[in-house]
Amino acid sequence: MEIESTKWFFDKVNPHLLQLHAIEGTLFSGRTKFQSIEILRSPGFGKILVLDGKIQSSEADEFIYHELLVHPPMLAHPKPENVFIAGGGEGATLREVLAHPTVKKAVMVDIDEGVIKICKKYLPEYHAGAFDDKRSEIYNTDARKWLAESKEKFDVIIIDLTEPIEEGPAYLLYTKEFYQIVCSKLTKNGIISVQAGCGSYTELLNLKSVCHTLKSIFPFVNIYIADIPSFGGPWGFCIASTTLDAAALTPAEVDKKIKERSLKNLRFYDGQAHQMMFTLPKHMRKAIAKGARLITDDKPLYLYKD
Amino acid sequence: MEIESTKWFFDKVNPHLLQLHAIEGTLFSGRTKFQSIEILRSPGFGKILVLDGKIQSSEADEFIYHELLVHPPMLAHPKPENVFIAGGGEGATLREVLAHPTVKKAVMVDIDEGVIKICKKYLPEYHAGAFDDKRSEIYNTDARKWLAESKEKFDVIIIDLTEPIEEGPAYLLYTKEFYQIVCSKLTKNGIISVQAGCGSYTELLNLKSVCHTLKSIFPFVNIYIADIPSFGGPWGFCIASTTLDAAALTPAEVDKKIKERSLKNLRFYDGQAHQMMFTLPKHMRKAIAKGARLITDDKPLYLYKD
Amino acid sequence: MEIESTKWFFDKVNPHLLQLHAIEGTLFSGRTKFQSIEILRSPGFGKILVLDGKIQSSEADEFIYHELLVHPPMLAHPKPENVFIAGGGEGATLREVLAHPTVKKAVMVDIDEGVIKICKKYLPEYHAGAFDDKRSEIYNTDARKWLAESKEKFDVIIIDLTEPIEEGPAYLLYTKEFYQIVCSKLTKNGIISVQAGCGSYTELLNLKSVCHTLKSIFPFVNIYIADIPSFGGPWGFCIASTTLDAAALTPAEVDKKIKERSLKNLRFYDGQAHQMMFTLPKHMRKAIAKGARLITDDKPLYLYKD
Amino acid sequence: MEIESTKWFFDKVNPHLLQLHAIEGTLFSGRTKFQSIEILRSPGFGKILVLDGKIQSSEADEFIYHELLVHPPMLAHPKPENVFIAGGGEGATLREVLAHPTVKKAVMVDIDEGVIKICKKYLPEYHAGAFDDKRSEIYNTDARKWLAESKEKFDVIIIDLTEPIEEGPAYLLYTKEFYQIVCSKLTKNGIISVQAGCGSYTELLNLKSVCHTLKSIFPFVNIYIADIPSFGGPWGFCIASTTLDAAALTPAEVDKKIKERSLKNLRFYDGQAHQMMFTLPKHMRKAIAKGARLITDDKPLYLYKD
User: Fold this and answer.
1) Whole-angstrom Cα distance, residue B148 to residue B143?
2) What share of chain A is helix, strand, coil (3-state, %, to 5)?
């Protein structure tokens, strides 16, 4: 077997499955106050951001991840003006949010100022100036605490966090108690999206548990999934609202809304993408229906341990 | 990073991406006349069949692969009676074909008798008795030669081959000349399906070239894709016919046909699966539209070299 | 980089150094009552015995390991008649002991009957009939307990154990208290040898701690080291006695003794080997002189944790 | 198995044996005119220099390599004044040569100016100012051509080259024809040393062939071997002369010479190291005695191919 590189990044999909990315070089390697951070260069995916050993996004396909996370709730909402982002350090979620001309204010709360600084410097293509947009407000504190103490309400709340690992900064932002806070900070037709982890048939615990936990609060909750090559397969997201059913949008409606919002730079998302990602085959529907956990502050879910 | 195993199978997705499967044991390891063959046991995927170093199928998700390959053409055809399978050594493609009560004869031509013997012994769950069904005819010769010399015509032809590698037995069964033979052996409403390789955004050369080559012969050609976890992501297939447009079937029509055929054991395929797998997001449609090659006997496509 | 195999065994030399062996097949994989056991086949080293994830010996170079462990104490002793082996499951240590015509009785105590059975079946070249020699007595119990309760004394005691890991069966057979028992069971000119772990400059903790602990009991203690390719580098042993100084033997004396004992099948050991392995370069002497720990029952040494 | 890093450098010892080093970061990664060059940082070995995918030296144990290569011929020679180094890009060979107060001129010819520049910048501990010593002359051209055209003669010639790979810059500096040129440029009591590759029992082809080829020219030729941990085991060198027998020096003579030359910073080399490294056990002497090739310009030896 001919392999291209002598240097490889080991990405653990699960204890019995590793994905190895060839590394051309390390642009940055260090620790912030909260986590380890590396920016690697891969021959296939360009620059790769790694936090606590997990790939967060790659230059080659971050557009899929960020369009998936942002546009379904933003387009489902009739006129999103105030938007809240929990996490989102790279600035690309913010970039996609600001692409909607309806947006008047985008508040992004990421606990880790270090990640933002390093991404600003090494990944300028990701934020594309979003941090400097007059509509942006950036805070470096715990997103849960910020939200709980805030008197503002938001039309769209986007949860863009690293996975819940025991030592990591995010595991208390995957619980029922957190989603209750989130729900209480939504405007009347408010809607949220959540990056919810691996969408592969054999690795659904996190995704279905996030979905199950959201359902304990929101009447409309849906899972949607699409392939993100640098993540090694399909990735899952949840969308939830008290009043809006994003999954029910037809391809034609999605395409019409994209046109109305003048979203000209979309590379992944359109009516067909919408239909594909909200449609799950039989085995996936069945697998998601059973074995999910309610995630609570008392019994949080730790990836790789549960 | 805690990893579960000391033994790993290296699956090369491409020169800069490796997928490593933990191995619990090797049930079989050897060479047939045509290729190397191994049957490994993985903690996550159960038994794994490996030919020439590439995973062919795993116990845990072979149902996805084989349902994907077989049922779209079988259900698109109004009454498939004679079916031809090129390759298909494990016997699971045959198993799915024989599930259709309309089938009177299923001819399977796999050049490698060794693979069939070893699969019969070590993977009985795969064929589930299909080789012993009275409707089955098995030949061990080159499928292209057999088809070219045959006077029979078939309602459905299913191409279930290993990938086209330079030293492998299959690369001349991916060419325009081969598909011309296939086309000439179809009955009036005949239809074919082809396993066509990786369906990941960054690795589409084989899939789009097979599609492009089929389009030089058939008026109706479609790509469809679904995630197969043990393959490390989405996998692509083509369906082609002179008269039938399988992609146009609605979810309701698919569900109705499944009922009519009494296909009670389907785990992946149903109306929603059908819709999902034939719907491609924007970046996939765009990527597939450009850079495809016409594959011919003179200029075959060799995976990992082209 | 061209690599030969798709299957690899990961041998952890230390947390930042892995050695990967290509695997042709798995002859056996399972668990005994005490540990995991695998017999793999490598293209370079033939059959490889793995206990709890660590290579114990390989067909290609087990002769080095077993000659190193056995012949220095056996030849240093003027007339070894009663020999005790702690561990030694493969039977190859026993084989080398029995090669000495002076031996009247060889007692081998290995806690793990399962290992012996599996080695007997899969590694017949290793024991070469030693288990059936009339002079052999095999017991399957804890070697420390057996020795403590025994009324016999031995001319040579050979400690051939797996490394001291927290979950493993051997860590209490590396302590001062154990060596005291060993010492009390030696005849007047008795001598012992101990396999003591990695002999590589950067990984000497176990070796130097075993040496240091032995020195708290025996007046004559020496380290000796030789390269064992399948172990990924040099391996270290200790030899200790109340009265005999094995290290002081000249090459000529060693060669003379080999001749007197009619040891015709030695492949590694001779006068020059003896001189080489007892001679340590400056950096090794210095590294061994500092930082060693006294290993006791209260404060055992756990490899990879200390 | 707990592994420390997510990034690993794959060092191919041979097609069935890989050594993986954890990587903390990449200080430099690029190509010179002649080869790829990387400077990595490992938690265990510090900075590691990699040329064409092979480890050349590490911060933690380069002292072993460079003392081994330099001091045996330098001390065997009664008064080395003019010294020639072929290769030696890092400058550490030059550093050790200049430590001998007898030296009046040290000529270093390394084809690859790029390697020297990068090592000067990133590995200042290696050269330790040697490039700026008034006695140093550095040329960037082919060492064979330079030597062939030179009218100078040298007391000691040190061959410090990368391994002979087909695409690499060094394979014509391992041939009989090259050693003839080298021999013709020695003063009357001249002596040479050669880094000659892996010294592991199962991987001796290069080492024994270099030795065999040298013997076709020089009356006194010896192999010597010592463990270099970052290389993954023992490493082999040859020493050759028309008149001097370096191997015959006793430990006491070596220690006396070290004192006379005031070599106070030696960490590896002393009388005992000398004795150890020139003494080979039985299986090594036997393995080296058979199967060596005569390396010639017409039939060069390519590592990993022969």
Assistant:
1) 8
2) 35, 30, 35
Q: Residues D5-33: what's their mean pLDDT?
A: 90
Helix (H) or strand (E) holding B40: strand B36-42
A29 interaction partners in chain D (CB closer than 8 Å)? 24-25
What distance in Å separates the CA atoms of residue C193 and residue C136, rounded to the nearest whole number?
A: 19
Among C1, C5, C6, beta carbon nearest to A6: C1
CB contact under 8 A, C38 and B7: yes
CA gap D19, D140 in Å, rounded: 32
Q: What residues of D are labeled active site?
A: 160
pLDDT of residue D305: 61
**Type of residue numbered D26:** T
Task: Please tell me the distance in Å from C39's CA to the nearest CA on chain B.
Answer: 10
Q: What is the mean pLDDT of residues A292-303?
A: 90
In the numeric block, the tokens 């070599």 are attached to: D263
Distances (CA, A) of C27 to A71, A304, C50, C214, D91: 54, 31, 11, 38, 49
Domains of chain D with bracketed CATH: 8-56 (2.30.140.10), 62-289 (3.40.50.150)
| Phi and psi, residue D270, nearest 5° | -160, -170
- Is the pLDDT at A220 greater than 60? The verdict is yes
Query: On the CB side of C223, how many CA atoms lie within 13 Å of its CA?
Result: 29
d(CA A256, CA A270): 9
Distance CA A69, CA B234 (A): 20
- How many angstroms away from the CA of A206 is the closest CA of chain D? 22
Dihedral over Cα of A44, A45, A48, A52: its sign = negative
Catalytic residue among A52, A110, A160, A298: A160
Q: B151 CB contacts (<8 Å, ≥6 apart)?
A: none
* Torsional class of C304: left (φ above 0), alpha (ψ -120 to 50), beta (otherwise): left
Least confident of B11-20, B126-135, D34-43: B11-20
| Residue of chain C with shortest Cα separation from A2 | C2
Residue B106: half-sphere exposure toward Cβ, Cα within 13 Å: 29
Active site residue C245: no
Average pLDDT (B199-213) is 94
For D275, half-sphere exposure in the C-beta direction (CA atoms, 13 angstrom radius) is 20
Contacts of D20 in chain C (CB under 8 A): 17-20
**Burial group, residue B199, by CB count within 10 angstroms (0-12, 13-18, 19+):** buried
Q: Name the 3-class secondary structure at C95.
A: helix
Q: Which residue type occupies C154?
A: F
Q: The tokens 């679904």 sit on which residue?
A: B226
Q: Does residue B306 have a pLDDT over 60? A: no
Structure tokens at D262: 């005031």
Q: How far is D33 from chain B (nearest CA, A)?
A: 24
Burial grade of C102 (CB within 10 A; 0-12, 13-18, 19 or more):
middle
Pairing of strands C7-14, B7-14: antiparallel
Nearest to D49 by CA among D129, D160, D165, D157: D160
DSSP string covering A233-269: EEEEEEEEESS--GGG--HHHHHHHHHHTT-TT-SS-
Tokens of D152: 């100078």
Which residues, in sequence order, are CB contacts of D117 under 8 Å at separation 6+? Answer: none
Two structure tokens written together for C210 = 């075993």
Query: For position C192, what pLDDT does the model report?
Result: 98
